[in-house]
Amino acid sequence: MEMQPETLSHQQLQPSYRLSGQSLAHPEQSPEVYLSSSLPSAQLSQSFVASPAQPSEQHSRFSTFLSTPAAQGYPKAVHLGYCFIPPPMSESDVEPKQREDTNTTQHCRARVRLIRPAYPLFTDILIAEHTSVPIKTFRSSAAEKGLISANYVNVPNFGRIIASEHPSTTKEPFELFWKMVMQTNTQIIWDLSGTPDTKIPYYPDGNGQKILMGSITVTKIETGVYFHNYEIEDSRRSRHYVNRYCLNDWADGQSYPLDKFNVLLDNINNCLPECPHMLIHCMGGIGRTGVVLVALSLLEYRDKLIELPQTIEKLVDSKITLIRFERSPRIVERLSQRQMLIDLIEEWQEKVRIRSSYV
């Protein structure tokens, strides 16, 4: 259902029940790979993938899932070393000049260890290992990182939000996604993955319908105007309830009308007091998801002026870089989505100036 321009309150949510989360595991050591911070994100991805697909080739980028014998358990994530996080690319950097020096350490402070998850939906999207959401499986008593493409992202005033790619309906990643939802006590899933004809449903459609995969059973409890409510049950008969908010009219790789985007931000903000444990995903978990995370981290500038000499472009780019460090170097890699964020902050600042002129 297409989102209407109406702001929600947390009273419209269905109840969720608390389950304890899991602690982070220590990263292992691996060889280091150094990439210049002057590289735009598109070049960064090419350092690991020979020929990244274009948006029109999206479905050819889906990974091929391997059947794993039960005794072997889930496969491990592939560790790909360290890289320096590149700053966002502006219009003037579409054809960047090569730097003469190769001492990359003086160009960027943030260095992150990248992994390819064990069960990725997109094989060319690498994620940060240190914030990868650990999931407890039957293989061991400790939670494991890097099983699926999901990261904790720290957002001011919101705490930790899980940023994830679209779950696959293949048995193992489907099971792991819903295990993660249970173990992290996720109360709301913000689904930005687009129109129904482009989605891969990972949830039952009608009230009372169920999907059973592995040790997880997902049952749809209620269909609302904005939220759909689900019950998740595992093999131990533990139950967890979660709301899913569905946004159907934001196309993949595109910007979004600012009036509708502000409504989405209001809805997320209004749900925070009642439901602080949130998960956001689109398809790859880097474009639309990244735009929302950056906007939430800048939400304070709806009500206050940016102090000079800080420019809107620098402010937006600094937030993008921080979230790239916690999720993926490819966060907000499209120029149109970066420009959307700049236009959003400019609109907020203009309204702040108008309000202050009447004081």
Count of all domains: 1
Overall pLDDT level: 76
What is the share of helical residues? 10-25%
Compute the CA-based radius of gyration: 20 Å
CATH level-3 fold name: Protein-Tyrosine Phosphatase, Chain A
Major sheet: arrangement of strands:
4-5-11-6-10-9-8-7
| CATH homologous superfamily title | Protein tyrosine phosphatase superfamily
Distance between the termini: 41 Å
Q: Please state the overall shape, judged from the principal axes of the Cα atoms.
A: globular
Largest sheet: 8 strands, mixed
Total of DSSP H or I helical runs spanning 4+ residues: 6
Strand/helix succession: HEEEEEHEEEEEHEHHH
User: Which segments are poorly predicted (pLDDT under 50) over 5 or more consecutive residues?
Assistant: 1-5, 8-72, 91-108
- Can you tell me the CATH architecture? Alpha-Beta Complex
Region (Disordered): 1-36
Organism: Parashewanella curva
GO molecular function, one term: protein tyrosine phosphatase activity
Domain Tyrosine specific protein phosphatases: 259-330
Give a verbal description of the structure:
Residues 1-36 are annotated as: Disordered. GO terms for molecular function: protein tyrosine phosphatase activity. The chain has helices spanning 41-46, 171-183, 258-271, 288-297, 312-326, 335-357; strands spanning 78-84, 111-116, 127-128, 150-155, 159-164, 188-191, 210-213, 216-223, 227-233, 239-246, 278-281. It is α/β, with parallel strands linked by helices. The strands form two sheets. The protein has an eight-stranded mixed beta sheet, with helices on both faces. It has a three-stranded antiparallel beta sheet with strand order 1-2-3, with helices on one face.
